[in-house]
Specification:
Blueprint (H helix, E strand, L loop, with lengths): L7 H13 L2 H8 L6 H10 L1 H17 L1 H11 L3 H8 L6 H6 L5 E6 L5 E5 L2 H29 L1 H9 L1
Antiparallel strand pairs: 1-2
Amino acid sequence: MAVKKLKPERELFCCWYAVLGNAQEAAIKAGFGTENALREGIECLGSEICRKRIEQIRNVLSNSGSIISGLKRLAYGNCSDAVYLAFSEELPPPDVIAKLDLFNVSELKRQKSGVVEIKFCDRLKALEKLYEIENSFSDKNRAEDLINALTSPQGDDDIENI
């Protein structure tokens, strides 16, 4: 079976819609004219191919989990670059600082006396949020399993036999 390829404007629409969730705004960003953006966006959403593509993009975004990956970086990230910066006698040049991984740093202060204070993001809170997210997915799956069991024809037969 051949996979249908979307026109570039529709592909862009799908990408923008997956992120924004607004048909008119996504259509404008995809290059459709502002006067027809809402109509074009609704037309794209009416296409099964576009809806499937939006779902694929959302799955990729949720699987890559920008929120989850950020929380993992906070929870398990390395702090050696921040320590390097703190113990540097002089402030490194901007191009060196730009290459440092300071994602875990919430605050960095260097006083005139030379004392350096670094505050890192709370790893425990990041781990707690990761735990909450993982449990919310498993709870959703359990609820979905229950609904499927209750609404499936096989489930109805089991209820009648009780």
